């Protein structure tokens, strides 16, 4: 049973003693999911709670909630560019330098390089804060006096989030998902407290939320960063020739990760940005609120991806390439089915969830299934991209994300100016995912990365989120039965792994 053997590799033998209890333990895939996924859901619940309260508080100035969403998305767009994608490279190469016994030197050089580049780039962007702010935040009902302060706070937050991401990247690469879970929960708690206090004390403006966001990232970054430095084992200094090739390797990987990341985040933002430009501020707020709910699917998918990537990289670095591909196939299937189920739950309770927002945002429930389908496919695409990360060809991620962005732009031009601009924006975003999915699959085949029949079948099933809840639930039940009793979705070895690994604790 080859796949069961491979599941024992990551963090279950040489690095992990089951009886040891430490926040910085190296964990297996199963144990990481048991700890990190619930922590992510708690973090998301805090974010959802914070988003609802902020929607009420910022509603005193119409359009501020939409501006906040654009600012947060702009941070995610610009952060990969400012950092050259180096945090992504850190996560990918930690397993490699663990094998080479030069981890401490790698972490020291990569962290310093990332923050030096980030500082220089952030200071450079400060000179263009006003035109950048007009590009991002100008709209029909936006006070021009608020644009520059919001842009300035956004740039400071970019520096803070990159420092935060460096520590996160190291924890992911080291598979210390217990420490990572606690760090993210601390950040979420601080952001909740700081953001609500800022809006109540300073006023209902998006810029005060962004300032609190920066502070909530800097504090845990300092504490966890110092803890990692103390726990990284000492080693002999590598030869002088170690540094220059390493910088080229990091920048080469990170550059393409940055470009792909910028396009990915621009794709996520475009429909809302376009809606803000051509429609009224209320529609912008409604769409932003629907995204707040729909992003749960992407966040859960990203949490699972964070656990899977370093474990697959460990197997890859040990030379077991077929084993790494087999595990990727297995976890992509599990993730897709799990997120379809979660999407159905969210649709079932969409009316009660819509009522917790201000009354003027109750149109959320009408567009939520379409928004959920968009994030379902984004999560699938993120999981498929793990193959490109493992084979160190980040440039391949550029093309599917670019296809998604171009599709979103074209569909928004066609659909959003119509009478129902809100629904048009939702359908434009969702329709754009199909081009990205097709390009991803073609690139995987071009790189001789196998795609199982079960994956092809599962890629069609998320469309049931657009059906009425009863037939959709019946079809999902049929999918589960087919998966457990047939061999099309999961092969016999994968089904045995489900029962042996996922239905009991490691």
What is the number of helices? 21
Summarize the main sheet.
Answer: none
Low-confidence stretches at least 5 residues in length (pLDDT < 50)?
1-19
Distance between the termini: 18 Å
Q: What spatial form do the alpha-carbon principal axes imply?
A: globular
**Topology as a string of helices (H) and strands (E):** HHHHHHHHHHHHHHHHHHHHH
Tell me the radius of gyration.
Answer: 22 Å
Helix content: over 70%
Q: Provide the β-strand percentage band.
A: under 5%
Averaged pLDDT, please? 83
Structural class per helix/strand content? mainly alpha
Please give the number of β-strands: 0
List the helices and strands and how they pair.
Layout: H1 2-7, H2 29-58, H3 64-83, H4 86-99, H5 103-126, H6 129-137, H7 147-173, H8 177-202, H9 206-231, H10 243-278, H11 281-317, H12 321-348, H13 350-355, H14 364-384, H15 386-390, H16 395-415, H17 421-431, H18 433-446, H19 453-460, H20 469-485, H21 492-502
Structure notes:
By secondary structure, this protein is mainly alpha-helical. Helices cover 78% and strands 0% of the residues. It contains 21 helices and no strands. The longest helix is centred in the middle third of the chain and has 37 residues, at 281-317.
Salient structural properties:
506 residues, disordered N terminus, 21 helices, mainly alpha
Give a brief outline of the structure.
The protein is 78% helix and 0% strand. With 506 residues, it is mainly alpha-helical.
